[in-house]
């Protein structure tokens, strides 16, 4: 005698989402998938210099991270814009290290993860022709 299995469903145990999780289609952890992730909705702040967007993600294993995007208006002068972009990259790195308690590498360090100080020449960050976004 065989057992009829038509209509049976295999179900993963449901999970409780953390308070910050969007608990919608962005959250795959609520369905119990082994690689599931809790995702917050993107948080956006309009600032005087541009826009900041952040989104938090956490795997069901507990490993989590914050995805941050900054849109910053730079000066129209090419040399000034290069200095600003270089300085921003280094200062953002130092700010993140400060918040997380990670010491900054010594000047001139070649260790992995070290960001060099801002270049002195205007063309050091962007080599080659400058391409403008066409919007298309």
Highlighted features:
136 residues; alpha+beta; 17% helix; 4 strands
Kindly summarize this structure in a few lines.
By secondary structure, the chain is of the alpha+beta class. The protein has one helix at residues 78-100, and strands at residues 37-39, 43-46, 50-59, 64-72. The longest helix is centred in the middle third of the chain and has 23 residues, at 78-100.
How does this structure look, described?
With 136 residues, the chain is of the alpha+beta class. 17% of the residues lie in helices and 19% in strands. It contains one helix and four strands. Strands 1, 2, 3 and 4 form a four-stranded antiparallel sheet that branches. Strand 2 (43-46) and strand 3 (50-59) form a beta hairpin. It is elongated and about 75 Å long. The protein starts with 36 loop residues before the first strand and ends in a 36-residue tail after the last helix.
Topology, element by element:
Elements: E1 37-39, E2 43-46, E3 50-59, E4 64-72, H1 78-100
Antiparallel strand pairs: 1-3, 2-3, 3-4
């Amino acid at each position: 005698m065989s057992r009829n299995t038509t209509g049976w469903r295999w179900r993963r145990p449901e999970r409780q989402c953390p308070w910050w999780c969007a608990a919608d289609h962005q959250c795959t952890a609520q369905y119990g998938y082994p690689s599931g992730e809790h995702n917050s909705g993107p948080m956006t702040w309009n600032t005087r210099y541009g826009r900041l967007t952040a989104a938090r993600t956490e795997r069901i294993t507990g490993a989590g991270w914050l995805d941050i995007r900054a849109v910053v208006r730079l000066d129209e002068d090419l040399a000034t814009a290069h200095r600003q972009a270089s300085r921003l990259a280094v200062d953002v790195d130092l700010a993140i290290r400060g918040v997380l308690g990670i010491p900054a590498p010594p000047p001139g360090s070649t260790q992995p993860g070290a960001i060099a100080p801002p270049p002195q020449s205007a063309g050091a960050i962007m080599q080659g022709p400058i391409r403008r976004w066409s919007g298309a």
